[in-house]
């Protein structure tokens, strides 16, 4: 008996390779079901995601599964079922999740789950993640907290000098009157 050999189509290999190339440049992915969206809505969605440095691609599930496996990402086969589009977060993923979750309120877009910082998130976790403050907001809050003691010290010093100037002025006014 001869051995069974699977013949791999070159076009499929190139398609998987292209997906792997685009996935290798990204660390966070959010999987969505895009059924029911019009062309205009998808165009608007892509424009909103570009504003937060992300891309939105419709992918063939089997190709994406192979690409994720080859790139050694966690197993996400449960999210790669049915019509799937993936938001690729090139920068921070919080604003991407926030933009997608805002659109799910008005459109028939459904978030399935995602890979964020190497961990698999389900739809509920992606929703919770979208409500967290972003990196820049956290840094601004930290800087405000760090500046508060210094600002209070400056205000205290300013108060002492102001009080001294007022006292000296009052003494000068009393001597001018008397």
UniProtKB/TrEMBL annotation:
GO terms for molecular function: large ribosomal subunit rRNA binding; structural constituent of ribosome. Gene3D superfamilies: 3.30.70.1730, 6.10.250.290. GO terms for biological process: translation. The keyword Nuclease does not apply. GO terms for cellular component: large ribosomal subunit. The keyword rRNA-binding applies. Keywords: Ribonucleoprotein, Ribosomal protein, RNA-binding, rRNA-binding. Part of the ribosomal stalk of the 50S ribosomal subunit. The N-terminus interacts with L11 and the large rRNA to form the base of the stalk. The C-terminus forms an elongated spine to which L12 dimers bind in a sequential fashion forming a multimeric L10(L12)X complex. NCBIfam families: PRK00099.1-1. HAMAP family: Ribosomal_uL10. Forms part of the ribosomal stalk, playing a central role in the interaction of the ribosome with GTP-bound translation factors. Belongs to the universal ribosomal protein uL10 family. PANTHER family: 39S RIBOSOMAL PROTEIN L10, MITOCHONDRIAL (PTHR11560). This is Large ribosomal subunit protein uL10. The gene is rplJ.
